[in-house]
Backbone:
């Protein structure tokens, strides 16, 4: 699977990064990771929606793979009526969630191997799966704005733009990039 897709991507779309599967940080299969490594440029990871960048966990993954890491489908949850988020450590308000998210992302980017991050869900999920959903978007139900959350994320984006180098090099031994 990884060889066929990796070789096809490299052949027909050589100018784009290959991430392979999005891995759940709490359930990374060493066998799948070993099979994927020769055919990907970077590792995509979905961490738990909890405050505090788990640097030791990501350090181990980077040491194990030698590949840069993309943080995907990540957010900090917050208290909101009708949301079933008790499995996470929610913040009391959207603004607090934005502040904790920004701190998490700043800590992630202080490493040498995190190459990107994006918020999970632009809009709230609702009862489409027979429950209230846990996904909390940058916009609430009916695309209602979340100015406190978005203000924190805009400040984070400004910080990232100001502190991101114009060019970063990673070598991939499998493809010589």
Residues:
């Amino acid at each position: 699977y990884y060889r066929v897709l990796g070789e096809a991507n490299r052949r027909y779309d050589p100018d784009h990064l290959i991430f392979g599967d999005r891995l759940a940080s709490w359930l990374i299969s060493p066998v799948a990771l070993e099979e994927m490594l020769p055919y990907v440029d970077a590792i995509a990871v979905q961490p738990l929606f909890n405050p505090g960048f788990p640097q030791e966990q990501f350090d181990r993954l980077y040491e194990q793979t030698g590949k840069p890491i993309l943080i995907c489908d990540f957010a900090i949850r917050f208290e909101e009526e009708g949301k079933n988020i008790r499995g996470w450590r929610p913040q009391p308000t959207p603004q607090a969630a934005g502040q904790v998210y920004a701190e998490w992302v700043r800590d992630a980017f202080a490493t040498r191997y995190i190459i990107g991050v994006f918020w999970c869900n632009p809009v709230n999920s609702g009862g489409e799966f027979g429950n209230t959903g846990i996904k909390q978007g940058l916009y609430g139900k009916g695309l209602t704005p979340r100015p406190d959350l978005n203000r924190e994320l805009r400040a984070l984006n400004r910080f990232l733009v100001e502190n991101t180098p114009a060019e970063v090099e990673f070598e991939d031994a499998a493809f010589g990039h």
